[in-house]
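Chain and backbone:
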Amino acid sequence: MAGTTLGVSAPDAPAVIRNEPVQVRSTKRLATLLDSAAAAIDELGYERLTTAMIAERAGASIGTVYRYFPDRIAVLQALAVRNYERVYTRVIDAISDSKNSNGLDAMSAAFEIFVDAFRTEPGFHSLRIGDVIDLRPTASGPTNNDRLAKAMFDVIVNRFGVTDDQQSRLTFAAAIETTDALVARAFARDNSGDPAWLEQGRQFVRLALEKHFA
């Protein structure tokens, strides 16, 4: 069957599935499969996820899983897309909020959204927005972190008029990558997030961007 993409509102974050759901019933079935995958990932990690595990948790046949996904990697990609879309929407809303008077405040708000995703989004703890999946040698182009950083920076430039040049964008992208690593470390052994590591993340973001956002 021909592959299609799982449509999302966030830019440039496709994941291949076998059948794009049209009917409400199919959409709910796909959501159930992804929810089941996310629950398994929370318990065991994405490395140990299998299609049989997804089918069992979803109360579906293995054929139902393969109706939508050609393999376990496609499931991970689709779940990463869903994570990306949800975080993208919340982050853009946060940095666009009128209560933020400058770019640093906007980034602080975005940081807290990212932390909350670790706490509340099933599967996010391990998979995040998918950059942890090793797809070599087929992977190419920008990562999901790159895409998210670009979208965030575009909003901040338009809203606050911060300097928009190559160095500023590189610094911002590096801040997003480092934030990802620091928050992941905070949740590595603490499901609520180690406060000390989270505070290191908050301080790093401000220190890294202060010069460019001043």
